[in-house]
User: Fold this.
Amino acid sequence: MSDPLNAAALLANFVIVPAVAYGSQLALGALGVTLIYGILRFSNFAHGDTMAFGTMITILFTWWFQSLGMSLGPLPTALIALPFGILLCAAFVLLCDRMVYRFHRKNRADPVIFVIASVGVMFVMNGLVRFIIGPNDQNFSDGERFIIKAREFKQMTGLSEGISIKVSQGITVVTMIIVVAALFWFLNKTRTGKSMRAYSDNEDLALLSGINPDRVVAVTWILAAALATIAGTLYGLDKSFKPFTYFQLLLPIFASAIVGGLGNPLGAIAGGFVIAFSEITVTYAYKKFANYIVPGDWKADGLMQLLSTNYKFAVSFLILLMVLLFRPTGIFKGKAV
Amino acid sequence: MSYLIAENMTGGYGGADILHDCTIAAEKGEIAVIVGPNGAGKSTAMKAVFGMLDLRKGKVSLNGEDITSLTPQDRVSRGMAFVPQNQNVFPSMSVEENLEMGAFLRRDNIMDTMEQVFELFPILKEKRRQNAGELSGGQRQQVAVGRALMTQPQLLMLDEPTAGVSPIVMDELFDRIIEVARTGISILMVEQNARQALNIADKGYVLVQGANRYTDTGQALLNDPEVRKSFLGG
Amino acid sequence: MITSIRNVLYFAVMAGLIVLVGQMQSWNLALSILNLCLISAVMSLGVNMQWGYAGLFNVGVMGFAALGGLTAMLVSMPPVQEAWTAAGGGAWVGLGILVLMIATSAWLYRKLPKSGLRTALIMLVVIAGYVLLRMYFDPTTKVIEKVNPAASGYLGGLGLPILIAWPLGGLLAGGVAWIVGKITLGLRSDYLAIATLGISEIIVAVLKHEDWLTRGVKNVTGLPRPVPYEVNLQNAVWFNDLSEKLGADPVTFSSIFVKLCYAGLFTVVLLMVLWLSEKALRSPWGRMMRAIRDNEVSANAMGKDVTARHLQVFVLGSIVVGIAGAMLTTLDGQLTPSSYQPLRFTFLIWVMVIVGGSGNNWGAVLGGFVIWFFWIEAEPLGLWLMDTITSGMPADSGLRAHLLESAAHMRLATMGIILLLALRFRPRGLLPERTHQ
Assistant:
């Protein structure tokens, strides 16, 4: 029997809901990368580890608050800790800029030197994170687990497939929308935001207009650190926190930023969802789905999975290659060719 | 005493000197034009006046104040504005935002100045919401000049404002520049189209190899047979 | 003159350090360090070609080294007959599809003019080939993996001498580099960096998860050696005579002897690569490469095909990295996919090149030695340092235990700081590139 309703529920549960959450996390990460690229003009390889660093601080504060007995009820305690994570991460990133990047900026060094320097910063951050919190998985989410449980959904609708939505997924999407709205308001409506766009557009002319480059750069780092910490914390709440996983997130994040067009914030968001949906649709096993959708007694043999989840990074990579081959500036026109 | 005096400027970009004892001045409300063959150091002289070049010798003063050691940004706050030849707008920002960025250093109300710019270049008012990168070459030059005017400068410096625009647009731009000068702003301009530029110039400087060759009023230079023969094509 | 004395001095100090380890710790350890120093030096010569000669930032060194390692295993291990029998025709069908896919793509690439259509067609062929492979070869992989999984569960290799794998590993790495380079070179430098990061992650993922090919995380152990085994040496008469003459314990000496054999082989390769690199650097080709690196715009204007030159040097450098990767797996005697960590295999090599002196082959060699030495010795040093710092704390202090446990991770941060300091204060490295006229 063909059963499209159950098939849709199945797909929603295992593809759409996780992809929306993952896409939001990637979008936030890619926004940070694209901002740095637009203003400082290099691909920041330390961004994955900046996420790990900010998340680590958030986790430490979360543990402390938990030990004090603080809680947000159904929401995870990490949300109270998040501002502290952002603050300290921003401070650390600004320190890195002061100690590392500023020197090369004053020398007007080649972009690739910045990339290599960012690799050095990545090393340092990675070492610090492993030193402080260790290389293992850390779980720090608390509060309610689900907004809708699969069982409740089944009871409500009478379907045999349930849709469950985790609290962390709901928080991810809501936070992403708030953060993106605030960021776009900042970039388009405030004096500082506009000066950042001007600097990104035409650095020399921005200087001629009296825009203070140090201020623009500092604000950019603070925004990037905030975006990284938020993205990292949401990812950690949704899955779990492991330093090496955050380093590996670098590839899908770069892919998102490039697919959308490096330096273009709108593109970063679109790119994040493109990558997330591709990754999950390509690695999902369609066996059960096919059994629902195909009429008659036909049963799928095998998992009907296009690509094993072991190779999910290959999806980002292939999309990246396709974009580079056919449209190097990205979907929305970015700066780089 | 002239409003801007740049005397005996000597220097270059680190290597050999490009300017040799070059002197340029501009009076209040008048148009000074620098002309000369390719590679004569016209744009370099302009950059030197604006402080984008380290001078080995010479002095720049504005309204009697020595500004030789000031950065370009500081010169902007002293009332100088510079329109570069290329990449002189913010392409992904709207016309209005371009003008706002021009007034970045000002904390007072900029709406009046913006209205004045729109009066001068009505087309910009029409396209105020459009991105500067999507405009035609002539319109983009208007945005560039408008952006520079937003600081309410006393001295407006233009580096080849008519490069790459059609003759009709060029005449139009020159008309606007005259209008700007009438409001009391001094203008210093580098031009390839020497004949047309000298036509509107109160003062003309002919540079050759980084040094002053002829200096006179625009009309006098146009009438000088030597200048005509060597630089204006007969 | 002064600089050449300084250069000799650097190498002398390095040799002295290794001897010091031999005296203070053990000769076995000193030789282990030396062998890995030699391999690191080859690898950093490869990266130096890409970065030092041409300014290309390859963040996928790990992947190319892993390809070399894979080749070493595939060439040297004996084929697993049972697996081939069990797989039956499936293995050949799979291979056939793969060959057909590659041949068709290559044919399309040659026959059609460069266009978006050609790229799309090739992609279509690759995707179709992939789907066919999954349909016909997947069941076969399950069968192969079921054949005695505790001991084999994979197809094995060709059973050839492992030394053949060194050049072959280089070629495999070069081939993959060609494809990556073809797509990303000519675009912004960041894109090459990101693409190489991606390809290396994928290569290592394949090594880890395709059990029928590599046994995955179960590792392939016991690769045949190009040098004698300790046990055989200890039983050989001539060897016992030799150790008696030297007054050494035969057991200890046998392991030192084996390491010396490896060191000999690696030194030969290092000298060959170094000689060729120096030759190339001084040739008109090398001068052109540097001219392009120093001023891409004007080189382009002079009619040099910058992208083609970059592709050339990128492939050459990757070949050298692949050779080094094969050498490393040979030395380990096993293929351990999970040991391919980007920090160890990519970024450490970069630190070697930059600290050693980008563009200077001797610098790359020196960097390989110095950084590997400190990478190894940093651990006992760090532990000792932590021990000293925490000695005032009570023995059961949780903080002390944590600090001691985490000391190893400080190596990463230390390497990062070394890289950053070198970039800032010594951007031309210990042995700066000589400026030729």
